[in-house]
Amino acid sequence: MRIIDxxxxxxxxxxxxxxxxxxxxxxxxxxxYNISSTIVGGRVSAELIIRYLLLRTPRAIVWSLPFGTLLGxxxxxxxxxxxxxxxxxxxxxxxxxxxxxxxxxAGAVAAGGGLALNQYVVPSTMEAAQxxxxxxxxxxxxxxxxxxxxxxxxxxxxFYVRDMLPAENLLREITIWTRNGQGRxxxxxxxxxxxxxxxxxxxxxxxxxxxxxxxxxxxEVEEFASREVYLTRALQQYYSEHxxxxxxxxYELQDLIxxxxxxxxxxxxxxxxxxxxxxxxxxxxxxxxxxxxxxxRYARHGTYVGVVVSLLVVFLYNGVRSWTLAFGLAGSLDxxxxxxxxxxxxxxxxxxxxxxxx
Length: 358
Fold this sequence. Notes:
By secondary structure, the chain is α+β, with helices and mostly antiparallel strands. The chain has helices at residues 3-34, 46-82, 85-91, 96-137, 235-241, 250-262, 268-297, 305-330, 335-357; strands at residues 146-152, 158-165, 170-179, 185-197, 200-211, 217-230. Helix 7 (268-297) runs parallel beside helix 9.
Protein backbone atom coordinates (compact mmCIF):
# COMPACT_ATOMS: atom_id res chain seq x y z
CA MET A 1 0.00 0.00 0.00
CA ARG A 2 1.42 3.39 -1.00
CA ILE A 3 1.93 6.20 1.49
CA ILE A 4 -0.86 8.22 -0.16
CA ASP A 5 -3.30 5.35 0.34
CA UNK A 6 -2.45 5.01 4.02
CA UNK A 7 -2.77 8.75 4.46
CA UNK A 8 -6.19 8.93 2.80
CA UNK A 9 -7.50 5.96 4.76
CA UNK A 10 -6.23 7.55 7.95
CA UNK A 11 -8.22 10.70 7.18
CA UNK A 12 -11.27 8.53 6.47
CA UNK A 13 -11.24 6.61 9.76
CA UNK A 14 -12.47 9.20 12.27
CA UNK A 15 -15.45 10.61 10.31
CA UNK A 16 -16.41 7.06 9.31
CA UNK A 17 -16.52 5.94 12.95
CA UNK A 18 -18.40 9.09 13.98
CA UNK A 19 -21.01 8.62 11.23
CA UNK A 20 -21.37 4.93 11.99
CA UNK A 21 -21.82 5.43 15.73
CA UNK A 22 -24.20 8.36 15.26
CA UNK A 23 -26.52 6.38 13.01
CA UNK A 24 -26.31 3.28 15.25
CA UNK A 25 -27.38 5.38 18.24
CA UNK A 26 -30.28 6.86 16.26
CA UNK A 27 -31.50 3.41 15.22
CA UNK A 28 -31.14 1.99 18.75
CA UNK A 29 -33.05 4.99 20.11
CA UNK A 30 -35.88 4.08 17.74
CA UNK A 31 -35.75 0.47 18.97
CA UNK A 32 -35.91 1.66 22.57
CA TYR A 33 -38.91 3.83 21.74
CA ASN A 34 -40.68 0.91 20.06
CA ILE A 35 -40.36 -1.29 23.16
CA SER A 36 -41.33 1.51 25.54
CA SER A 37 -44.79 -0.01 25.97
CA THR A 38 -43.12 -3.23 27.12
CA ILE A 39 -40.92 -1.64 29.77
CA VAL A 40 -43.53 0.71 31.21
CA GLY A 41 -43.95 0.32 34.96
CA GLY A 42 -40.31 -0.30 35.84
CA ARG A 43 -40.73 -4.07 36.11
CA VAL A 44 -38.03 -4.79 33.53
CA SER A 45 -34.43 -4.67 34.77
CA ALA A 46 -31.95 -2.26 33.22
CA GLU A 47 -29.63 -5.20 32.56
CA LEU A 48 -32.25 -6.92 30.40
CA ILE A 49 -32.97 -3.74 28.45
CA ILE A 50 -29.27 -3.14 27.81
CA ARG A 51 -28.79 -6.76 26.72
CA TYR A 52 -31.66 -6.43 24.27
CA LEU A 53 -30.25 -3.22 22.77
CA LEU A 54 -26.77 -4.73 22.49
CA LEU A 55 -28.19 -7.74 20.66
CA ARG A 56 -29.94 -5.40 18.24
CA THR A 57 -26.67 -3.54 17.59
CA PRO A 58 -25.31 -5.79 14.77
CA ARG A 59 -28.42 -5.17 12.68
CA ALA A 60 -28.16 -1.45 13.41
CA ILE A 61 -24.52 -1.55 12.26
CA VAL A 62 -25.53 -3.13 8.94
CA TRP A 63 -27.98 -0.29 8.31
CA SER A 64 -25.49 2.34 9.53
CA LEU A 65 -22.47 1.27 7.49
CA PRO A 66 -23.64 3.12 4.33
CA PHE A 67 -24.09 6.38 6.26
CA GLY A 68 -20.74 5.96 8.00
CA THR A 69 -19.05 5.37 4.64
CA LEU A 70 -20.82 8.34 3.09
CA LEU A 71 -19.91 10.74 5.89
CA GLY A 72 -16.35 9.42 6.12
CA UNK A 73 -15.61 9.79 2.42
CA UNK A 74 -17.37 13.15 2.07
CA UNK A 75 -15.68 14.67 5.12
CA UNK A 76 -12.20 13.38 4.31
CA UNK A 77 -12.31 14.52 0.67
CA UNK A 78 -13.83 17.88 1.60
CA UNK A 79 -11.16 18.58 4.20
CA UNK A 80 -8.33 17.55 1.89
CA UNK A 81 -9.69 19.64 -0.98
CA UNK A 82 -10.44 22.68 1.18
CA UNK A 83 -6.85 22.91 2.44
CA UNK A 84 -5.37 22.33 -1.01
CA UNK A 85 -3.97 18.86 -0.34
CA UNK A 86 -5.81 17.27 -3.26
CA UNK A 87 -4.53 20.03 -5.55
CA UNK A 88 -0.97 19.35 -4.37
CA UNK A 89 -1.35 15.61 -4.90
CA UNK A 90 -2.75 16.12 -8.39
CA UNK A 91 0.14 18.47 -9.18
CA UNK A 92 2.40 15.49 -8.54
CA UNK A 93 0.77 13.64 -11.42
CA UNK A 94 -1.86 11.64 -9.50
CA UNK A 95 -5.35 11.71 -11.01
CA UNK A 96 -8.41 12.39 -8.91
CA UNK A 97 -9.74 8.91 -9.69
CA UNK A 98 -6.51 7.40 -8.32
CA UNK A 99 -6.82 9.57 -5.20
CA UNK A 100 -10.34 8.21 -4.64
CA UNK A 101 -9.34 4.57 -5.24
CA UNK A 102 -8.52 3.68 -1.58
CA UNK A 103 -11.72 5.38 -0.42
CA UNK A 104 -13.80 3.39 -2.91
CA UNK A 105 -12.02 0.18 -1.89
CA ALA A 106 -12.86 1.04 1.72
CA GLY A 107 -16.51 1.37 0.64
CA ALA A 108 -16.34 -2.07 -1.00
CA VAL A 109 -14.85 -3.55 2.19
CA ALA A 110 -17.63 -1.95 4.25
CA ALA A 111 -20.19 -3.42 1.83
CA GLY A 112 -18.64 -6.88 2.21
CA GLY A 113 -18.61 -6.51 5.98
CA GLY A 114 -22.28 -5.52 5.96
CA LEU A 115 -23.22 -8.52 3.81
CA ALA A 116 -21.26 -10.86 6.08
CA LEU A 117 -22.87 -9.43 9.21
CA ASN A 118 -26.31 -9.73 7.65
CA GLN A 119 -25.74 -13.34 6.69
CA TYR A 120 -23.79 -14.80 9.61
CA VAL A 121 -24.11 -12.58 12.69
CA VAL A 122 -27.46 -10.78 12.54
CA PRO A 123 -29.64 -13.95 12.43
CA SER A 124 -28.26 -15.34 15.72
CA THR A 125 -28.21 -11.99 17.51
CA MET A 126 -31.75 -11.19 16.38
CA GLU A 127 -32.91 -14.59 17.65
CA ALA A 128 -31.27 -13.89 21.00
CA ALA A 129 -32.79 -10.40 21.00
CA GLN A 130 -36.25 -11.87 20.47
CA UNK A 131 -35.68 -14.15 23.44
CA UNK A 132 -34.66 -11.14 25.54
CA UNK A 133 -37.82 -9.38 24.38
CA UNK A 134 -39.81 -12.46 25.38
CA UNK A 135 -38.26 -12.27 28.85
CA UNK A 136 -39.38 -8.64 29.05
CA UNK A 137 -42.86 -9.51 27.93
CA UNK A 138 -43.16 -12.17 30.59
CA UNK A 139 -43.31 -9.32 33.10
CA UNK A 140 -46.10 -7.56 31.22
CA UNK A 141 -49.63 -8.24 30.10
CA UNK A 142 -48.88 -8.75 26.42
CA UNK A 143 -51.72 -8.40 23.93
CA UNK A 144 -51.61 -6.28 20.82
CA UNK A 145 -53.53 -6.10 17.59
CA UNK A 146 -51.84 -7.21 14.38
CA UNK A 147 -52.84 -8.19 10.85
CA UNK A 148 -51.43 -10.34 8.03
CA UNK A 149 -48.79 -11.97 10.20
CA UNK A 150 -46.32 -14.69 9.17
CA UNK A 151 -44.16 -16.61 11.65
CA UNK A 152 -42.47 -19.96 12.16
CA UNK A 153 -42.38 -22.17 15.24
CA UNK A 154 -39.55 -24.30 16.58
CA UNK A 155 -40.86 -27.34 14.67
CA UNK A 156 -40.39 -25.55 11.35
CA UNK A 157 -44.09 -25.02 10.69
CA UNK A 158 -45.12 -21.78 8.98
CA PHE A 159 -48.18 -19.86 10.15
CA TYR A 160 -50.25 -17.13 8.54
CA VAL A 161 -52.87 -15.23 10.55
CA ARG A 162 -54.96 -12.55 8.92
CA ASP A 163 -56.25 -10.87 12.10
CA MET A 164 -55.14 -10.97 15.73
CA LEU A 165 -57.81 -9.48 17.96
CA PRO A 166 -56.63 -9.05 21.57
CA ALA A 167 -59.99 -7.86 22.90
CA GLU A 168 -61.57 -11.24 22.04
CA ASN A 169 -58.30 -13.21 22.33
CA LEU A 170 -59.17 -14.41 18.85
CA LEU A 171 -57.39 -15.19 15.59
CA ARG A 172 -59.11 -15.13 12.22
CA GLU A 173 -58.26 -16.98 9.01
CA ILE A 174 -55.30 -19.15 9.96
CA THR A 175 -53.15 -21.24 7.60
CA ILE A 176 -50.51 -23.70 8.84
CA TRP A 177 -47.95 -25.27 6.50
CA THR A 178 -46.02 -28.36 7.67
CA ARG A 179 -42.91 -29.59 5.84
CA ASN A 180 -41.52 -33.13 5.67
CA GLY A 181 -37.91 -34.18 6.21
CA GLN A 182 -37.02 -33.19 2.62
CA GLY A 183 -38.31 -29.66 3.15
CA ARG A 184 -41.42 -30.07 0.98
CA UNK A 185 -44.90 -29.06 2.08
CA UNK A 186 -46.58 -32.24 3.30
CA UNK A 187 -49.66 -30.86 5.06
CA UNK A 188 -51.79 -27.73 5.00
CA UNK A 189 -54.30 -26.85 7.69
CA UNK A 190 -56.74 -23.95 7.44
CA UNK A 191 -59.30 -22.62 9.90
CA UNK A 192 -61.73 -19.74 10.04
CA UNK A 193 -60.80 -18.77 13.59
CA UNK A 194 -58.81 -19.81 16.63
CA UNK A 195 -58.95 -19.12 20.34
CA UNK A 196 -55.68 -18.87 22.26
CA UNK A 197 -55.31 -20.05 25.84
CA UNK A 198 -51.84 -20.59 27.25
CA UNK A 199 -49.87 -22.68 24.77
CA UNK A 200 -52.93 -24.20 23.08
CA UNK A 201 -54.74 -22.88 20.03
CA UNK A 202 -58.18 -24.29 19.41
CA UNK A 203 -58.95 -24.05 15.69
CA UNK A 204 -62.59 -23.80 14.57
CA UNK A 205 -64.33 -24.59 11.26
CA UNK A 206 -61.29 -25.82 9.40
CA UNK A 207 -59.81 -28.52 7.22
CA UNK A 208 -56.59 -30.53 7.06
CA UNK A 209 -55.16 -31.57 3.71
CA UNK A 210 -52.29 -34.04 3.23
CA UNK A 211 -50.29 -33.43 0.03
CA UNK A 212 -48.62 -36.07 -2.11
CA UNK A 213 -44.93 -36.14 -3.01
CA UNK A 214 -45.49 -33.75 -5.93
CA UNK A 215 -47.28 -31.20 -3.76
CA UNK A 216 -50.72 -32.07 -5.15
CA UNK A 217 -53.85 -32.96 -3.22
CA UNK A 218 -53.54 -36.35 -1.59
CA UNK A 219 -56.19 -38.82 -0.67
CA GLU A 220 -56.56 -37.49 2.85
CA VAL A 221 -58.80 -34.45 3.28
CA GLU A 222 -60.32 -33.98 6.71
CA GLU A 223 -62.76 -31.32 7.84
CA PHE A 224 -63.16 -30.51 11.52
CA ALA A 225 -65.33 -28.33 13.72
CA SER A 226 -62.55 -27.80 16.27
CA ARG A 227 -59.01 -28.97 16.82
CA GLU A 228 -56.26 -28.14 19.28
CA VAL A 229 -52.82 -27.15 18.09
CA TYR A 230 -50.07 -27.33 20.73
CA LEU A 231 -47.15 -24.92 20.83
CA THR A 232 -44.22 -25.28 23.22
CA ARG A 233 -43.95 -21.52 23.77
CA ALA A 234 -46.32 -19.27 25.65
CA LEU A 235 -48.49 -16.59 24.08
CA GLN A 236 -46.09 -13.87 25.22
CA GLN A 237 -43.23 -15.55 23.41
CA TYR A 238 -45.36 -15.98 20.30
CA TYR A 239 -45.94 -12.25 20.09
CA SER A 240 -42.32 -11.38 20.83
CA GLU A 241 -40.94 -13.83 18.30
CA HIS A 242 -42.96 -12.46 15.42
CA UNK A 243 -40.82 -10.50 13.06
CA UNK A 244 -41.79 -8.56 9.99
CA UNK A 245 -40.14 -9.64 6.71
CA UNK A 246 -37.82 -6.63 6.95
CA UNK A 247 -36.45 -8.06 10.25
CA UNK A 248 -35.88 -11.62 9.00
CA UNK A 249 -32.51 -13.01 7.98
CA UNK A 250 -31.98 -13.64 4.24
CA TYR A 251 -32.16 -17.43 4.65
CA GLU A 252 -35.41 -17.12 6.65
CA LEU A 253 -36.95 -15.02 3.90
CA GLN A 254 -35.75 -17.52 1.29
CA ASP A 255 -37.36 -20.39 3.23
CA LEU A 256 -40.63 -18.49 3.50
CA ILE A 257 -40.54 -17.65 -0.20
CA UNK A 258 -40.12 -21.34 -1.07
CA UNK A 259 -43.06 -22.26 1.16
CA UNK A 260 -45.29 -19.63 -0.43
CA UNK A 261 -44.30 -20.74 -3.94
CA UNK A 262 -44.95 -24.39 -3.09
CA UNK A 263 -48.47 -23.51 -1.97
CA UNK A 264 -49.22 -21.13 -4.83
CA UNK A 265 -49.06 -17.96 -2.72
CA UNK A 266 -47.67 -14.62 -3.82
CA UNK A 267 -44.00 -14.02 -3.01
CA UNK A 268 -43.71 -10.51 -4.48
CA UNK A 269 -43.37 -8.64 -1.20
CA UNK A 270 -41.07 -11.20 0.38
CA UNK A 271 -38.74 -11.12 -2.64
CA UNK A 272 -38.63 -7.32 -2.50
CA UNK A 273 -37.48 -7.44 1.13
CA UNK A 274 -34.94 -10.15 0.26
CA UNK A 275 -33.28 -7.98 -2.40
CA UNK A 276 -33.14 -5.02 -0.03
CA UNK A 277 -31.27 -7.29 2.42
CA UNK A 278 -28.38 -7.24 -0.06
CA UNK A 279 -28.74 -3.82 -1.68
CA UNK A 280 -28.55 -1.87 1.60
CA UNK A 281 -25.01 -3.07 2.49
CA UNK A 282 -23.87 -2.60 -1.12
CA UNK A 283 -24.89 1.05 -0.76
CA UNK A 284 -21.57 1.50 1.12
CA UNK A 285 -19.72 1.15 -2.18
CA UNK A 286 -22.23 3.32 -4.01
CA UNK A 287 -22.00 6.10 -1.42
CA UNK A 288 -18.19 6.08 -1.59
CA UNK A 289 -18.35 6.61 -5.36
CA UNK A 290 -20.90 9.43 -5.00
CA UNK A 291 -19.41 11.22 -1.98
CA UNK A 292 -15.83 11.60 -3.25
CA UNK A 293 -16.50 13.79 -6.32
CA UNK A 294 -19.25 15.79 -4.61
CA UNK A 295 -17.07 16.49 -1.59
CA UNK A 296 -14.24 17.68 -3.85
CA ARG A 297 -16.48 19.88 -5.97
CA TYR A 298 -18.06 21.81 -3.11
CA ALA A 299 -15.08 21.88 -0.73
CA ARG A 300 -14.55 25.60 -1.39
CA HIS A 301 -17.67 26.32 0.67
CA GLY A 302 -16.06 25.00 3.88
CA THR A 303 -14.72 21.88 5.54
CA TYR A 304 -18.12 20.86 6.89
CA VAL A 305 -19.78 20.85 3.50
CA GLY A 306 -19.19 17.10 3.66
CA VAL A 307 -21.87 16.86 6.33
CA VAL A 308 -24.30 18.72 4.08
CA VAL A 309 -23.42 16.48 1.14
CA SER A 310 -23.94 13.38 3.30
CA LEU A 311 -27.33 14.50 4.55
CA LEU A 312 -28.44 15.45 1.05
CA VAL A 313 -27.37 12.13 -0.48
CA VAL A 314 -28.99 10.14 2.36
CA PHE A 315 -32.20 12.13 1.98
CA LEU A 316 -32.35 11.57 -1.78
CA TYR A 317 -31.34 7.90 -1.55
CA ASN A 318 -33.94 7.15 1.12
CA GLY A 319 -36.53 8.97 -0.96
CA VAL A 320 -35.80 6.83 -4.01
CA ARG A 321 -35.61 3.69 -1.86
CA SER A 322 -38.99 4.45 -0.27
CA TRP A 323 -40.61 4.87 -3.68
CA THR A 324 -39.12 1.70 -5.15
CA LEU A 325 -40.01 -0.21 -1.99
CA ALA A 326 -43.60 1.04 -2.18
CA PHE A 327 -43.94 0.20 -5.89
CA GLY A 328 -42.28 -3.16 -5.34
CA LEU A 329 -44.60 -4.11 -2.48
CA ALA A 330 -47.57 -2.99 -4.58
CA GLY A 331 -46.43 -5.20 -7.47
CA SER A 332 -45.77 -2.33 -9.88
CA LEU A 333 -42.03 -3.13 -9.98
CA ASP A 334 -40.43 -6.54 -10.08
CA UNK A 335 -38.44 -7.39 -6.92
CA UNK A 336 -35.01 -7.07 -8.56
CA UNK A 337 -35.74 -3.59 -9.91
CA UNK A 338 -37.33 -2.46 -6.66
CA UNK A 339 -34.42 -3.68 -4.55
CA UNK A 340 -31.52 -2.57 -6.72
CA UNK A 341 -32.77 0.53 -8.57
CA UNK A 342 -31.54 3.00 -5.88
CA UNK A 343 -28.03 1.52 -5.91
CA UNK A 344 -27.95 1.43 -9.71
CA UNK A 345 -29.17 5.02 -10.06
CA UNK A 346 -26.78 6.50 -7.52
CA UNK A 347 -23.94 4.31 -8.74
CA UNK A 348 -24.31 5.62 -12.30
CA UNK A 349 -24.52 9.22 -11.05
CA UNK A 350 -21.43 8.67 -8.92
CA UNK A 351 -19.46 7.33 -11.89
CA UNK A 352 -20.48 10.36 -13.96
CA UNK A 353 -19.43 12.78 -11.18
CA UNK A 354 -16.17 10.89 -10.72
CA UNK A 355 -15.37 11.02 -14.44
CA UNK A 356 -16.00 14.78 -14.54
CA UNK A 357 -13.76 15.44 -11.55
CA UNK A 358 -11.04 13.08 -12.80
